[in-house]
Amino acid sequence: MRLHHQDNAHAGNSGKIPSHLGIVTVVVFLLLCFVPLSAVATPEAKQCEVKTYAVPLRDPVSGRGYQLFAKFPQGFDPASPVLHPVLFLADGARAFQHHICEIRDLTEAEKRDLVVIGLGYADGESLEDSRRRDYTPTAQPSTGHVYGGSVAYQAYIKDVVIPFAESHYHTDPARRIFWGHSYGGLLAATILLRDPGMFQTYIIGSPSLWYDSHAILAIEKQFAAGHHSLPANVFLYVGGKEVRRYETDRRGFTKDMVEDAKTFEQLLESRRYAGLTTKFAVIPDKDHVTSVGPGIAWGLRLALQSGS
After folding, report:
1. Residue 97 has what pLDDT?
2. Given pLDDT bands bounded at 50, 70 and 90, which one contains residue 306?
3. How big, in percent rounded to 5, are the helix, strand and coil portions of the chain?
4. What is the pLDDT of residues 158-168, one digit of tens each?
5. pLDDT of the residue at 272
6. Are 258 and 282 in contact (CB under 8 A)?
7. Is the pLDDT of residue 285 over 90?
8. Are strands 171-181 and 84-89 parallel, antiparallel or unpaired?
9. Residue 307, burial from CB neighbour count under 10 angstroms (0-12, 13-18, 19+)
10. Which CATH number is 4-305's, of 3.90.1150.100, 3.60.21.10, 3.30.200.20, 3.40.50.1820?
């Protein structure tokens, strides 16, 4: 698939679950054709079998229960001290099962021993309630829903999830990759500007930068006021069809995600942050849903080539 982009430089065991890994459930996903239900589901998912592990991991601060979904590279040895690059997936409860086949195939082709960890939603909550709270940076009290909890969720990832992955799965702190799409892309951009060192590479897909009158721009302005460096790889993609257009079903116009993403990438570049590398791609003929699969593949391939 041809991408329009611009470059800027500036387990298997016999089925017994090893308890010392903190793994409690083995899941084998058989991925079939399906109707997309959200921005992290895509009709292009392929059919395959992949052994994965589901791990409950509670947030001790909020008291909420979450699940992680983990996949290990072929020949993974929990007793080995060898460190592995790691990919964290926002919207992991859906993105993990729908795209793990492509991720597996790509990493095997690149001969990379990647650990993949999907970040699940809060137990007992709908994905809508969980992600609108955990993935957004500012509150929206007039909506009647809870928004603006990304600071707390970011702390959960940093203080609980990452240490767990490093201690149990031997993930390399120098080779962490974060992927997020839509609200997950907004979360990725927010983490980048609040604590960029959490990850070395950010794959930011079709981010909801329009959220709360482009609140992300105020976050970036605050970051820029106190920082001259931003040591990170930022790979930003968006579907070519994600432009402003009238939709009869919504009785209104859609957001211009292409222009928002382009503006955000240009803003980062204009700051001339030391250590920042950005790449930007518009994926032709793809919309907010169908850009997910090719976007992950594009960003992950770049991440692996850049040393992750």
Report:
1. 83
2. confident
3. 35, 25, 40
4. 999 999 999 99
5. 97
6. yes
7. yes
8. parallel
9. exposed
10. 3.40.50.1820
